[in-house]
Amino acid sequence: MLVKSIKEMQGIVKKWKKEGHSVGFVPTMGALHEGHQSLIERAARENDRVVVSIFVNPTQFGPTEDFDAYPRDLEKDCSLCQGVGVHVVFSPDAKELYFPDQSTMVHVSGLTDVLCGSKRPGHFDGVCLVVSKFFNIIQPDKAYFGQKDAQQVTVIKRMVRDLNLDVEIVVCPIVRESDGLARSSRNVYLSPEERQAALVLSRSLEVAKNALNNGERNASVLKAALLSCIVQEPLAEIDYVEIVDSESLQVLKGKIANSILIPVAVFIGKTRLIDNIAYKI
Ligand code: AMP
């Protein structure tokens, strides 16, 4: 069932809660693929009712980013949702969700100063604002996010903790194509040549993982190995490559000792792709 009105969505949730149903929520920007599907299927297994939001959120795009070009196919998304146990696809209009004089911001400091936060100023403010609005409207017991957007997961978890929001954040593993490319709605932008070049992201992370498995513990050496792999791909332009502490997201330079995250952001032509691996020492 497709719901556009916020009031109607709130009414449905109220009824579900009265009937004692648990509610799982999967926020997305649509152009659904198997990555989204894995979140939805998990939500369907763990909850009585499932809501998927499809909303290309203008406030999380920068002025030079791809908001207008972002792929949209609500009809196809709805039919995918129907096949995997979704009860409501919630797709409000931006005009109803945002007030012309919207004055409230949700800013998570510190964690958003690095990685995508520093490369995409305001991005996480937009994400936190829209996710807070959806949490308030949908009142989910559990909300499902992909490890693909590792910094987003860390920021959302901190927001939920800091604001005492009563929702459990469930993190789902990265779903990849058979050749290793992380699934993304933005992969449709890639020409066949760029699609091949995009494999450099997962390949560079494999290089780092192998080095870690072989005992390498120096962050700078690991970073150098990643960089030298990526620069071999002529169509790739590095946005960032870092070795960070997986909780604080602080950049590590010397010896690594705890759980680390290796996030990479790389332009392939005009398309900006991200990927990461988490590793426990
Ligand atoms: P998006 O529509 O790109 O905003 O993504 C919606 C949710 O799906 C986010 O929590 C993403 O992290 C998650 N997601 C996107 N791609 C993947 C993937 N390849 N594997 C797992 N989760 C993903």
CATH fold naming of the largest domain: Rossmann fold
Domain count:
2
Shape: globular
* Ligand names: adenosine monophosphate
The low-confidence runs, each spanning 5 or more residues with pLDDT under 50, are: none
Query: What is the H level of CATH, i.e. the homologous superfamily of the largest domain?
Result: HUPs
| CATH architecture label name of the largest domain | 3-Layer(aba) Sandwich
Q: What's the Cα radius of gyration?
A: 19 Å
Number of helices: 10
Compute the separation of the termini in Å.
45 Å
Helix proportion:
25-40%
Question: Could you characterize the architecture of this molecule?
Answer:
There is one protein chain. This protein is of the alpha/beta class and 281 residues long. The protein contains ten helices and ten strands. Helix 7 (150-162) links the parallel strand 5 (142-146) and strand 6. Helix 6 packs across helix 7 and helix 9 runs antiparallel to helix 10. It is globular and about 55 Å long. Bound molecules: adenosine monophosphate. The site of adenosine monophosphate has 17 residues, from helix 2 and strand 5.
TL;DR of this structure?
38% of the residues lie in helices and 20% in strands.
List the helices and strands and how they pair.
Blueprint: E1 2-3, H1 6-18, E2 23-28, H2 34-46, E3 49-54, H3 74-83, E4 88-90, H4 94-97, H5 115-119, H6 123-138, E5 142-146, H7 150-162, E6 168-172, H8 192-197, H9 199-213, H10 219-230, E7 236-241, E8 244-245, E9 259-268, E10 271-280
Parallel strand pairs: 1-4, 2-3, 2-5, 3-4, 5-6
Antiparallel strand pairs: 7-9, 8-9, 9-10
Helix pairs in contact: 6-7, 9-10
